[in-house]
Amino acid sequence: MKIIVYEHVSGGGCCERHIPPGFLAEGFAMMCSIAADFKAAGHTVTVLLDARLSTLNPPIDADFIVPILYSNEPKQFLSNIAKVNDAAYVIAPETGNDLQSTIKLIEETGKVALNCESKGISKVADKAFLYKELEKNGFSVPKTLVLKKDADIKQIKQSIIRELTYPLIFKPSDGVGAFGLSIIEDEKQIEKAFSKINIESANEDFIVQDFIKGEPASVSVLSTGKKALAISLNKQKVKVSGPDQSSSYEGGIVPFEHPLKDDALALAEKVVESFPGLRGYVGVDIVLAEDKAFVLDVNPRLTTSYVGLRKVVNFNIAEALIDSILFNKLPMKTEIHGFVCFSKQQIPIPTMADYQKASKLASIVSPPFPLQGNTESYALAIGYGEKVEIACSSLEEAKKQLQDISI
Hints:
Number of strands: 17
Distance between the termini: 44 Å
Shape: globular
Number of domains: 4
């Protein structure tokens, strides 16, 4: 097939404005990874790329690269290019309806969107609705309040006192990753957490929930839309901060060996199967408490864990994704060999020479881009090993290589 790959942050969704370097590292890494896998499966791949990045000639294994100059161009190109392509794959945040509206556009062209259906995305993108559905279907979720942003702060505090106990998590109802998320230890921090959400989310609702102590993790799932298959449990490294600082997703380990692994995989399959329209690749965020797995989020799209997972599974995930959507077929036998540790690494804005050196390192999935106007840059580095300790050691070596380049 002829396939278009569009990743929102690196593909032009941030044209005419600042590109967040942390999100760029994750987005570019995912885009490059799945584009390479589509090509390895024998397909012709076209990638949309922000013109500020395309002038840097980054390492992308694609047949065609379309430079994007203006923020209104990606959807125009997707609509027009669809005429000479068979399918498209979109990686975009649910925030601001970006993912759903882009998928809907592709569906309207009559070509194949290799994503969850737009109607399926709408059911999980709104976290307020998601939690209600999860709870209604009997899944373990943190005790959750859905509150209105136009409510009086005094009312918000009273609702929290009646229903929840500290520590608490404040987060937007349309957030991705750790964007807008705060951990709250007492009532004094509520107003700052509320203000943070008002700044970072346009949704009318926001979420407050009990903090579940445990290991943050995710499950990578393939689904036909009816039947789901959990591929891997992945460890997540998340920095959860108070309202005065930004929380962030730092990286992870694939796979994650944990006593609740089988429970987590089974739980993720049931969650995905409970939402019609979730198909292809889906990520389910969970927290592994002492004796139970709790569902935190459902991501109807590629997740950053993909950059590690593709290195350790015994099949091409992109091809399996196509099979799940076009032929209602899931892999018969999945095996994982070895471990991958991956993380974002912040460095000073590199010179062009340093950027080019970093781009050639095999352990760097997303290079640190020297973008004008930015004060910092991020790379996404990976390390592989037959044992998790070797993989993490390999990652540290990759980080050291980056630091040596930037000195």
